[in-house]
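quick one, 134 residues, struct below
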Amino acid sequence: MALSHEEKLSHLLDLMNLAKADEQISKIETIYILKVAERLGIDQLELARLEALGIEKRSIPKAEHHIIPLFHRSLILMGIDTRINDEEIGFCKNLGLQMGLNLYAINDIIQLALNGYEFMDPQQINDIFKKYYN
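---
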């Protein structure tokens, strides 16, 4: 089953909030969010409305195979401007925990991002999660 409309909007709002975490939204971060929205089938008008009004209730997918790609997108956004700061790291850690992800896996993945692997292969991320889920 694909993501629900509410899950898509929640994810996009998370990305927007992550982009704002360092109080500097770069052009590349904006472009990335627009491309994710487009891929999810959310048009620019709805995205602007989401940014202005937010959402009533946050919706996170239940299935891990949906959650991990959303977390991966957050990591890409965190490093896309080549500046990763403590606010962004904290945001991603909290987001991962709210998604129900393993803290040790979250920390390992963020450490990889800090070591210059901002654009990690999805298989790398899956392998890290598998290491902690046995």
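The chain has a mean pLDDT of 89.
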